[in-house]
């Protein structure tokens, strides 16, 4: 055929040729092996690669609270757990795995009976720590508990556990990731409903999974960039591979940025939002603090200038944790002590997440009310006060003193809530408004993305984002690949897969013994 293009003629009957490894195949092979080498063992959730500190020994501790109680739980973890169970119980055989059995407990040395107790046997790795574990559910009297602890101490190979050691072993055996460990610690310390919900979500591994998804994106991008470095010049790569990596990295930057903008919320939920009660003297600030905290935290008196220092008290406000601060009434031209109180009040106001501004509803036209309205309330509400996004609720207190037609309406008065600390009228409305404000400040732990509950999380996400800022493949591919590696390292440290001993020490120190 005269019109055939020049070049090698097709072979074979149908003109088919044996396939050469084409660019796409080559890329697939390359990426899959690179990903394999780069990826952190994705399915088997491993903790730090280092062995559990002190593993080999068997630890024991009282895991329920201290003090007299109905039932106390004592547990052991480590290879000698089975031996410990056998030496304390009669009959001496191990109970079936994970089934509660009633046994007589005896001191192994003196054979003296200690208690009749439920015992449980959890052979590793199907246990909380991944090691052989035993539990003794004994009667909660102090003499029983100390008797059993002493008996366990006499079993060879057993020693008392350090604070957080059970959880540390669980982490070391890949039973929990680092963010899950933090979730567990928070669950133990949760004091409000919102904190509990947040801690449970973190214990379920939501934050860890999110980070792992991000890390996999980075791993993929890194594999693509490295493929380009190695093979790009040979023209063997499918077009658009680098473009795809670029767009994935840019999308990741947007996601990280959005998460970081929310960062303070998770921390507020964990340690409490700062709610500062402020206003002119005698508005009823201390009365409100006492009402919200349901105890007489602050002195209340008809004398203006009663509160001088900042008084801080942790409270559960509508299910959210808050640090409530009572402050001195803001006014000028007073003695040096009260002036210092006013200075402290102003300083505390600057640090507030939420300002509860209190005015006397029957005294809106006084100069101190007017000053407070114009120097604090209106500038904060209109957002002209500062760059920070403080929130404010205006409360007009002493509504019981108002004539029936309500307060003298002030033209510049922003949206307000009427309250009487004396009769309690308006308290429900105020609590509902507080709930909304705190949900906005802390994030709603029932919905929405997992929150960053610790400064550590924020630090590593910011580090990751900063590293991605150096990802400029058009300029220098090698530097771009390095930027991706640094970014990935930050995510690894967040979930503990790149964990250094120091981070672990800090985190596990927060645990109680027996957890
Ligand atoms: N009628 C009425 N009196 C109230 C109400 N709330 C507070 N008071 C009274 O107002 C006075 C001042 O209350 P405080 O709570 O001490 O006011 P404060 O704003 O903390 O005052 P300073 O600390 O001096 O700035 C007290 O005599 C309270 O009993 C209210 O709702 N109705
Ligand atoms: K007062
Ligand atoms: Mg006061």
From TrEMBL:
Reactions performed catalytically: GTP + H2O = GDP + phosphate + H(+)
GTP-binding keyword on record: yes
Predominant cellular place of this UniProt entry's protein: mitochondrion
Any GO CC annotation of this UniProt entry: transferase complex
Keywords: GTP-binding, Hydrolase, Mitochondrion, Nucleotide-binding, Transit peptide, tRNA processing
GO MF annotation terms: GTP binding; GTPase activity; tRNA 5-taurinomethyluridine synthase activity
Annotated Pfam families: MMR_HSR1, MnmE_helical, TrmE_N
Cofactor dependency: K(+)
GO BP annotation list: mitochondrial tRNA wobble uridine modification; tRNA methylation
Subcellular location: Mitochondrion
Domain called TrmE-type G: residue spans: 272-439
Quaternary assembly: Homodimer; forms a dimer in the presence of potassium. Interacts with MTO1; forms the GTPBP3-MTO1 complex composed of homodimers of GTPBP3 and MTO1.
Protein family membership: Belongs to the TRAFAC class TrmE-Era-EngA-EngB-Septin-like GTPase superfamily. TrmE GTPase family.
HAMAP family xref list: GTPase_MnmE
Protein name: 5-taurinomethyluridine-[tRNA] synthase subunit GTPB3, mitochondrial
Organism: Catagonus wagneri (Chacoan peccary)
Organism phylogeny: Eukaryota, Metazoa, Chordata, Craniata, Vertebrata
Gene that this sequence comes from: GTPBP3
């Amino acid at each position: 055929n005269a019109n055939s293009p020049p070049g090698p003629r097709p072979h074979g009957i149908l003109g088919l040729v044996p396939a050469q490894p084409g660019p796409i195949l080559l890329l697939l092979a390359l990426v899959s092996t690179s990903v394999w080498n780069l990826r952190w063992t994705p399915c088997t959730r491993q903790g730090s690669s280092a062995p559990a500190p002190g593993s080999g020994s068997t630890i024991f501790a009282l895991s329920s609270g201290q003090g007299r109680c109905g039932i106390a739980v004592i547990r052991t973890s480590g290879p000698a757990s089975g031996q410990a169970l056998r030496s304390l119980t009669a009959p001496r055989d191990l109970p079936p795995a994970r089934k509660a059995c009633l046994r007589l407990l005896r001191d192994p040395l003196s054979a003296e009976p200690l208690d009749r107790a439920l015992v449980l046997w959890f052979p590793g790795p199907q246990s909380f720590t991944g090691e052989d574990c035993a539990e003794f559910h004994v009667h909660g009297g102090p003499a029983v508990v100390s008797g059993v602890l002493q008996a366990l101490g006499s079993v060879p190979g057993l020693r008392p556990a350090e604070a957080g050691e059970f959880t540390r072993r669980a982490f070391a055996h890949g039973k929990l990731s680092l963010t899950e460990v933090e979730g567990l610690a928070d669950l133990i310390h949760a004091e409000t409903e919102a904190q509990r919900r947040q801690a449970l979500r973190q214990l379920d591994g939501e934050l860890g999974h999110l980070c792992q998804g991000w890390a996999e994106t980075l791993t993929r991008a890194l594999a693509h960039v490295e493929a380009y470095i190695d093979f790009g010049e040979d023209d063997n790569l499918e077009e658009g591979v680098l473009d795809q990596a670029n767009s994935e990295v840019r999308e990741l930057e947007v996601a990280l940025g959005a998460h970081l903008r929310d960062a303070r919320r998770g921390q507020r939920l964990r340690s409490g939002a700062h709610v500062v009660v402020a206003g002119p003297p005698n508005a009823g600030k201390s009365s409100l603090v006492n009402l919200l905290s349901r105890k007489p935290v602050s002195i209340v008196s008809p004398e203006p200038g009663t509160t001088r220092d900042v008084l801080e008290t942790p409270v559960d406000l509508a299910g959210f944790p808050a640090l409530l601060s009572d402050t001195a009434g803001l006014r000028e031209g007073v003695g040096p002590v009260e002036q210092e109180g006013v200075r402290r009040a102003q300083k505390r106001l600057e640090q507030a997440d939420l300002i509860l501004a209190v005015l006397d509803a029957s005294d809106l036209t006084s100069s101190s009310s007017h000053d407070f309205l114009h120097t604090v309330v209106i500038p904060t509400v209109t957002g002209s006060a500062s760059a920070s996004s403080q929130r404010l609720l205006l409360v007009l207190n002493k509504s019981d003193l108002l004539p029936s037609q309500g307060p003298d309406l002030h033209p510049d008065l922003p949206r307000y809530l009427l309250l009487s600390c004396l009769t309690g009228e308006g308290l429900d409305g105020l609590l509902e408004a507080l709930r909304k404000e705190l949900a906005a400040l802390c994030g709603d732990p029932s919905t929405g993305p997992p929150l960053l509950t610790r400064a550590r999380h924020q630090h590593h996400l910011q580090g990751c984002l900063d590293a991605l800022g150096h990802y400029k493949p058009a300029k220098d591919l090698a530097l771009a690949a390095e930027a991706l590696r640094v970014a990935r390292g930050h995510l690894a440290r967040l979930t503990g897969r790149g964990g250094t001993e120091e981070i672990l020490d800090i985190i596990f120190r927060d645990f109680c013994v027996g957890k």
